[in-house]
Each structure stands twice: as C-alpha cells, then as structure tokens.
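Recap from last week: sequence in, structure out.
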Amino acid sequence: MVIKNKYYPFLEINLSFILMSTSGLFGKIIPLNPAVTILIRCIIAGFLLLGYLRLRGGLNIAWKRDRWFFLISSILLSVHWVSYFQSIKMAGVALAMLSLFSYPIITAILEPYFFKSKHSWFDILSSVIVLVGLAIIVPEFSFGNRAVQGVILGLGSAVLYAIRNIMNRRYITIYSGSAIMCYQLLISAAILLPALWIYPPEISASTWGNLVLLSLFTTAIAHTLFVKGLLYFTASTVSILSCLTPVYGIIWAVWLTDERINEGTIWGGLIIVLATFAQGFRHYQKQPHVVGNIR
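Predicted structure tokens:
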C-alpha cells in the first residue's frame, strides 16, 4: 500500500524509539541472567511476529540466497542484546543507554566501509566529542570498576547494533521489516537456547508479565517499526530521530525504579546526545530520504 500521509513513516519511527526506550527499564527490573531474558524475549516476540506474518503473508524468504545475511545479522542481534542487558546490570540504565546510543557515530564511521565512500573530518570530530562525553559519565578510569566495565559492554553492543542496522538497510527493500525481524528473532532464540541449561531460571508471575511486555511492545512492535523506517530514511537520518531515546529511557528508570543520576551523567549524556544529533543532521542534509512503499 502506497503511503497516503507523508508524516506516517515519521510518526511510526518515533513511536518505535519511545517503545524501545523501555528496554533499559525492563533490563533493570527483570531478575534473570541477560542471556535467559533475551532468549525468552526472542521466543515470545518471534512467535508473535510469525503468527502475524502467517495471517498477513510475507513470510517467504530466499533462504538459500540470503541465508548468510539472516545468520550473521541474528548473531549480531543476540550478542548485541545480551551485552546491552549485561551493561544495564553492571552500570545502570543511564550509563548503559548513553553508551549504546553512541551507535549513530559508530554507524557514520562504519558506513563508508560498506558503501565505499570516504570519511569526513566531521565524523572524526564527532567521535572524539562522544569519547569526551563517555569519559565524563564514567565514575573513574579503572577497568576494575563495574560501571566502567558496563560502559565498555555498552559500546561493544553499540558496534554490533550499528553493523546490524547497516546490513538491514541492504535487505529492507527486498523483505518487509516484520519478516526480517521475525527470522532474526527465531534464529537468535536458537542460538541462545543453551542458556536455559547454563542458567536455569526461576520465573515468577510478575517476571513473566514483564517478559511479555518486553517481547510485545519493546521488541516485536518497536523493532518492526524501526526496521521498516530504514526503508524511508537513511541510517544517518534515523540517528537524528533516535537522539531522545536514551533520555526517554532514563526518565522511565528514574520514575519507576530507584535509578539515580549524577551531574557527570547529565553533562556527559548531553554531550553525547548533541554530538549524535549534529552528526545525524549533517548526514540528513547530504543524503536524500529513501522512498518506498509500506510492506
């Protein structure tokens, strides 16, 4: 169906960021090993999308041709989520989300290698500014500090997230966002299945409720809207729109949990968000929107 309202993709992708911002909250309050949490998240969300696609159509893919894309992107997704949730456990929601949302800068650095373009001085400057912001938010420069370890994990997660987003852009014109997300979730679940034996979970009714909310809203709906957004906007344009996601996430955590943020986190976070916005806005001016149909 062709888009009738030009603002519809814009509203969709902003809704995806609001929903995704709850991931930090769930990562903090769900008392399970991150690998188990992500396994259950992938199973529930994957089968929800599978049911949706069986009713709507669009489930078929060219597995033989594109199997390496689905396998590699699923590995990136599963490791990205596990490392991000572990980062939340170690550093708290604020530091983990701010570390993860340096990914637009990482995207700008990595995209030239995928699309055979050149780096700009602005990319390098933005990277340095983000590093300054990260230096401000960490409590001390010691690898033995648990918060610092969490920030490093968050940065690793950001790298994986950036690579997956770039890979998705190559295939979003071939498959629907729902189909890509469905296969990535189910393959990720298969990858993480051993976690049930390594970390046997004891899950209460309230934890099951949070897992369902995480799987339905934060995952199935939010990430499908996000992946579909890559059909209409460049990855750099999307990075502008994503700038407020860590702000939303920190607000959720402060409001609903015992999360506390200090002055260093506020100033360092502001530097990271502004650098990310400037980077995305610059690329937005240079690159046209990717136009397409709703799939």
